[in-house]
Structure formats: C-alpha cells, structure tokens
Amino acid sequence: MDRLDLLCLGEALVEFNDQGGGRWFESIGGDVSNVAIAASRQGARAGLATRLGTDRFGDRLVQRWTEEKVAIDAVERDPTAPTGLYFIRRRDREYRHTYRRTGTAASLLSPDTLPSAALRLTRTLHVSAISQVIGEHTAAACAAAMDEARAAGARVSYAPKLRPALRSLEQSRDLILASMRGADVVLTALDDARKLSGLTDARDVLAFHQDQGARMTVMTLDTDGAMISRDGVVTEIAPHPAHSVDRVGFGDCFAGAFLARWMATDDPVAAARYAVVAAALSTEGYGAVATIPTRVQVKAALAAGRADAPAAGTALGGSEAGDKPRLALVAHDARKDAMISWGLRHHDQLGRCEIVATGTTGGRLAAAMPDLSVRRLRSGPLGGDQQIGAMIAEKALDGLIFFTDPLSPLPHDVDVKALTRLAVVYDLPMACSEATADMVIAHMVRSAAA
C-alpha cells in the first residue's frame, strides 16, 4: 500500500438522477467520494476508506474511482450488505433526495473494521459529520480513525455538515463540537456554521469555532468567497465570478481542492484562494462530479484573473489536461435534441473525453449525462463559436462535432463556414451529422487508446 496525501473516510453511494419520462441516469455520489475525486484532479494522491456491497453498484463506484486515479486499497467489500443508493428528482427548481442507506455496507463501519494500514500511511485524513450518523457504530469508527491517524502523525480534516433528516442538530451538536476540537482544519459552509453556533455574523461564527477549540476553520460564503480563521486571525478570500448553473457539490469541490493545495504548499491562504476558483468553476455545469475542474483548468483561471472557461491553448490541450482527448460539441436549435440522443448512445465513449460545448448545448448535455466532464462555453451567438475557433487555431482540440441545421436562415451559415474553414486549415476531425459524428468519436477514442 502506497503512502497517500489524503484519505477520505466515510460513505459513498450510487446516484440515480431522474431524467423524466421514466428514465434515470446512473452516476456516483457521497461527499467524501466527491472530495477525494476533487483532490485527485488537483494532483494529490487521494484514496477512499469505505465499505461497499459486492453488488454491481459497488462495482460501479470502484470502476469510477479507478478511472479518477483514486486509491481503493482501503475499500472493503461486504457480501452481506448492499451498497447505498440515492435518487434525485428536480421539481420547481429544487432538488429532492431520497436515500437507501439503512443497513448498507457503509453504515456498518465500526472501530473493528477500520483500515489501520491506510490510516498509518496518509498525510491527511478527511472525515465528514454525515458519515458519523449513518449507522449505529459509525461515530465511534470516525473518532477512532481520527485518533489513529493523528497518532501516526497525520493531519485531520473535518467537515461538520448538518443533515437533519439523519440526525437533528440537538442530537448531533455535541458530537460535532467534539470532532471539531480534534481536527487540524474544520471545513464548513456559512449556512451550517450559523445553525451550529446560533450566530449570524461570519466573524462571530469563526470566533465561536475558535472558542470551541478549532485550530483552523476554513468557511465558504456561497458566492461571496471564503474566510479563514487561524489563532484568532481572520483572512478574507475574495470570490471569483462564474456563470453558475448548478451548485451541487460546490462545497465538496472546495474541500478537495483546498486539501490538495494545502498539502502541496502548506499555505492555507493560498490553498483557499485556489479552492475558491475551483469551486466556482464547478458550478458552470451540472452534477457534483462531472464539473470538478482539473488542476490545469484552475491554474489557467488563476492566471487569467477570473473563473471563466480556460483560455484557448492554456488548459485545453490533450496532453495538458491528462490522457483524455478534448472534444467540442455544438448544435443549432433544431438539432439539439439530436445531439442529446446521439450523446446518450455514445455515453461510454464520451466518458473517455473532456468535453467543451457552447451555452445551451452544454447545459443540456450536462443535465442529460451528469457524470460527464462538460465545460460550458458562452452561447454560440455571444462568442462560444469564436471560443471554439480559437481552440482550433491553438491546436487545443482533438475533434469537433457541429450538428448543423442546413434548412435554417442564412445567419447560421456564418458559424458553420468559419469553423469548417479552421477545421480544414488545421486538419481537425469535424462532423456535422450523426453518421460522421460516429466516425469522429470512434477515431478519437481509438487514437487516445493507442
């Protein structure tokens, strides 16, 4: 077992997202899983310590973690208990979650089942309050894990998340406060911290944390940046603007990015600035995992001084972004349904690519396939087509699929001609129909594998 930068202990689940019409899209979830993936995408050696069933849902999680380069040495499979599931329905612009976690393998975590070898080989252990309250013995297991990791010289990170549906604030308050006192860093959100403290002002909330014995608190302020409190000194981190469409997983992305950079630099203020940008970028698409940015994308946004889509040629090249080829997707209004249908048929192949897509097309792709990595550019008429053109010129794309509407009025011809000309000049594989798109995606995936 290799030494890790970060080990996340707790519950992971398989997610089913209601797509309407009786269709459900399967992905993965669980806050500690999200944190581990976010840290891994920033370059940290991250791993998970959890329990899964020996069912296909457990297989799904293991497969995705392997793809994300998240270590699974401390993942135990239980043949007698299932993997946890949850279901998401979006109604009236709100997400409604239904969980199947009673009696799951993760809920049976106990001090006797802890992965002691992994706890001794990690630089930082991350624990969430959610994992403490999902089973009869999970709180004791989390406390024992924190003690064991600290005894081995590791730092301890703690997320005091409040989940009234699992346990009321009155029931969990003492447990959370005790865990905060045993952590080197408390990663929280202002809303949860206000409820825990009963205070409103952010600085008063941070002072409460210090009075309770928290060594360092890093607190996100939703769209207003973040604040850090260390030994009574408070540092404010400015927000970064983003074209936000979905904030699911925002805090988990922040936590993973912060922990990865804190371990790399030992500078919590610089780590928080980095994490604010990463979390802002993650809100520009749909889903908790698919939208987590890579380190290259965050660095590009930091260099540009804004949390916008990475500039062409900086974070979009295949070799820079990792092993995945980069594919641009565009569809005229009359062809957007066809693009979604084509994408669903080629979901597995798209999962092997990093995808950039213009405005509405990107939003619909991310909503239909939340587990994909989809980076939304601006709407085509507002500059998205020009962004793609710049990427072609900078040789930052591996393929372009533009579902055009040949029967539309003349203005559409300008976009098609401009991108077609650049694709020909730079010898970029380009498709404008479903049949040719099949060939382009097959060529891209085959070339990447070779």
From TrEMBL:
Residues forming the catalytic site:
D385
Q: Which domain of life is it from?
A: Bacteria
The residue range of the signal peptide is none
Q: Which InterPro entries match?
A: Methylgl_synth, Methylglyoxal_synth_AS, MGS-like_dom, MGS-like_dom_sf, PfkB_dom, Ribokinase-like
Keywords of the record, alphabetical order, are:
Lyase
This entry carries the following GO cellular component terms, namely: cytosol
Among the record's GO biological process terms, what is one?
A: methylglyoxal biosynthetic process
One molecular function GO term is: methylglyoxal synthase activity
- EC number(s) per UniProt? 4.2.3.3
Binding residues annotated for substrate, in chain numbering = H332, K336, T358, G359, T360, T361, S379, G380, H412
Q: Which reaction does it catalyse?
A: dihydroxyacetone phosphate = methylglyoxal + phosphate
User: What CDD domains does the annotation carry?
Assistant: KdgK, MGS
Q: Which residues form the MGS-like domain?
A: 319-450
Its biological purpose is as follows:
Catalyzes the formation of methylglyoxal from dihydroxyacetone phosphate.
Family of this protein: Belongs to the methylglyoxal synthase family.
| Name assigned to this protein | Methylglyoxal synthase
The organism encoding this protein is Roseospira visakhapatnamensis
Q: Its encoding gene is what?
A: mgsA
